[in-house]
Amino acid sequence: MHLLDWIMVSAYFVLMVVIGLWSHSRVNTVSDFFTAGGKMPWWLAGISHHMSGYSAVLFVAYAGVAYTDGITVYFWGMASIGIGVGIGSWLFAARWNRLRSKLGVSSPLEYLAKRFNVPTQQALAWSGSLLKIFDIAAKWFAVATILNVFAGVPYTWGIIITGSITLIYCTVGGLWADALTDFGQFVIQAIAAIVMLWVVLDRLGGVSGLWTVWGDLPPAHLNPTTSKFTTVVLLVYVLVKTLEYNGGMWNLAQRYMAAPNTFEARRSARLSSILYLVWPLVMMFPMFAAPLLIPDISNPNNAYAIMTTTFLPPGLVGLVLAGIFSHTMAMVSSDANAISAVITRDMMPVLWKKARSFTESQGLLAARVSTVVFVVLTMAVATQAEKLGGVLGIVVLWVAALMGPISVPLLLGMLPAFRRSGSRAALISWAGGLIAYAIAYYGYNATLAVTVSTPILVSLALFIGLGYLMPERKTTTDEIIDTIDRDDDLTSSKSRDGTTVPA
Predict the structure, then answer these.
(1) Helix (H, G, I), strand (E, B) or coil at 90
(2) What is the pLDDT of residues 152-163, one digit of tens each?
(3) Which CATH number is correct for 3-391, 1.10.357.10, 3.40.190.10, 1.20.1730.10, 2.60.40.150?
(4) What share of residues in the chain are helix, strand, coil (percent, to 5)?
């Protein structure tokens, strides 16, 4: 890369650290660190939710699918999230917010100990934390791949550089730093995406390339589904993403919890949903057009990076690279904050009695130490990502398949319709989903559709079925569900300007 590109990337890293240090002054309590004290405006929570939901995997693994298969990657990879978050704006966003405002919950798993029991909480905490280690490791490896193609930086050093910068600001500033850097990253990424789109359209003959390109691509590239990414995969992904992006991916639940009230929590979810449906089309258009501009490349995963280094002048390459960094750093920092919340609020008090009586300063220290340990561990695993199935293998086959069994008790446990499903249903559905995945993937070497759909469908069937066949109705369960089901006046909540809006 040119010196101007390195200046651009370095300036981006410095900006992220400065935001993190500035955010440090706003973090005085554990609640500030994990949920921004419930003071985050809806637009910031929505943009942060959006930015925290995807990473450099988009520019590596998804770009590779766009190169070989076309628009199908948008439908199961992005539109499914937009639909899922839209569903969550109605079903889950307000309930997450009430968990914080009414029950004082700071961790997404904190309510599970009372809703089910401590063993259920711990099972989900440990298995979810382990899964996120591999998920984030895949994100580090993806951004290291980009840096390697752009500048020839060795993979290990790419992981160390991006991981260390992220570690500084997310450890110092907590959720406020995550959200504010998410916003800065969104702006940088937007400029970079528009620049890339403009350059690609110029190569295609102008703005008309937006509609003429489709006639020049192979006809199969225009199909929403393929023999591998079938209609079943698409439908299952909508179900998986509805659970994953509304709390199953713990960091995203924190955005709903951080909003001042239920009205703004829902507004933030709707903003994120719209962004997921629209903005990826801007970012992914160059990926769809790549087969025409750089045909016959040996590794499709490098398509976006090759176009950037080939078509953009010095300075703009660094801008696009900073935009790619922004996605991974946004997701990882928010994930680290959520995992730290789970470790500090849910796991440590069970393992260590002293943690149950931490002062605010001790709790903050524990939160920051656990963040450091978690991020360093993900960086270590990232160096072995290729041996674990590569980026797409981890993200699609591991995370998408295993998120369901973890999410089902966590999310459905909030809803009145499933109040009869207790700890037995939660644990059996969690274990049954994991066993179903092991049988499908390792026992039968099943197709992608079967591997992704089996765990979540088994978990759903067990959780719902056991609730009806062997109900475990408890007073504490009813109290929690009724508390988070609606606002105090039963019919309305107050927006920030004091107007009454539907609950």
Answers:
(1) helix
(2) 788 888 888 878
(3) 1.20.1730.10
(4) 80, 0, 20
